[in-house]
Amino acid sequence: MKPASQLSGGLPSARFLAALVIVLLAFWREIRRRREALRWLRKMVTEIRGKEAMAQRIDEISANLEREKTNSARESVAEAWKEYRATLVIEETEHGYNLRNAVRPGTFFNLEDLHFNAGFFRILPGLFITVGLFLTFLGLISALASMVESVDGGAAMDGGTMATLLNVASAKFIMSLIGLLCSIVFTIALRFGMGQIEDAIHRVNRAIEERLSYISLEEIALAQVRATREQQEHFRKIAFEMVAEFGRPLREELPQTISTSISDAMSPLLKQVGQMSSEGVGDMVRDLSSRFSDDGGFDMLVLGPRAAGTGLTLTAATHVIHLSRWWNPAVEEQCNDRVHRIGQSRPVSIHIPMAVHPGYREHSFDCLLQSLMNRKRRLATAALWPMGDTQEDASQLQRMLEEGQISNVSDPVSAAMEAMFRRDAIPLPSPLDDGSFPF
Description:
The longest helix has 51 residues, at 159-209. The chain is mainly alpha-helical and 439 residues long. The strands form two sheets. It has a three-stranded mixed beta sheet with strand order 1-2-3, with helices on one face. A two-stranded parallel ribbon has the order 4-5. 64% of the residues lie in helices and 4% in strands. α1 packs parallel to α3 and α2 crosses α3. The protein has helices spanning 10-46, 51-67, 72-85, 111-114, 124-152, 159-209, 217-252, 254-275, 278-294, 305-308, 329-337, 365-382, 391-403, 412-423, and strands spanning 89-93, 96-101, 213-214, 319-321, 349-351. It folds into three domains: 4-214; 217-252; 278-423, no CATH class. The chain contains 14 helices and five strands.
């Protein structure tokens, strides 16, 4: 059996303590290197006074970081600054320049992004405990094996042998305690060192934030909405100015040009009519009618309701289209009678185009005017023909327009015609192939 002096475990314990000292020195050296890199950046930032100076010297800081990164810690700090610098925007204000950003520097300057976390040192406390227990286990097994060899060799299991075994167990237990002690000491050093790094990072972030202007995402959205509104107002102003500028010739020059052209074109005719007698005017009207009736080809005569209702015989025509309606049905009848009179040998079709609103339908203006004309025709037939215009006509149209309400149907024209004929107490005729309604 080995002597007790060889089983005391003093040498392994000393090695444990030596390993602890070496690891602490290496860890503290790394902490100092990282703190120095952070202080290096903080010193360059704190030398700048004010936000405007920061905006002017921001590129100088970037250049110094790139030039003076002499170790891995400084390289990590310089890389984080480079990424954060890309998010900064230099804004020109009334008082100079200003750096604006919506991202805090802590997003880039932190333990993980700087690679300043514990890393390998994080596993050392557990490693100390594991190695201590492992060596204790090996020592106990070695002592038991030696004792078994002695018993097998004929040695008696006396009190000395048991005392030796207890001394070995105590020594190995002390080695386990030394491993636990090393683990506790290094854990405290690890927490303290990482706290120093976090404090240095916090100081750097605060120094940077004091020299920047931050804007939230909500403020950016409000600024964009405000800019959009100003842009819309600007475009609206430009549109009004363009319309006013384009409309100026229409308001000032076009009426005068039209008036001059009409006067120049009509003056010879008016001069000729003025020089004619009543017989000469009649001859001119008869000549116009004969040319319309006798000349071949497709002819169209555009006349106002008053002019078309007096002194003309147009039996060569077969279609009468009322584009601008007179509110007096007698005037329309006079226009129709210019074509449908003695000498007419073909059927005459009277066309009344109507604009039907898809929502108002039978309450559209043209439909209401048609109902008004039908009512006046019935009154004229029952009492006196012709019947003139009255103020009551306009009032009734106004009331009917105000009573109308918008509604949606699949076929607004057919619905409007059906409602209009029903309102006028007229049977609804079947529509023609072209979609028009005869009555």
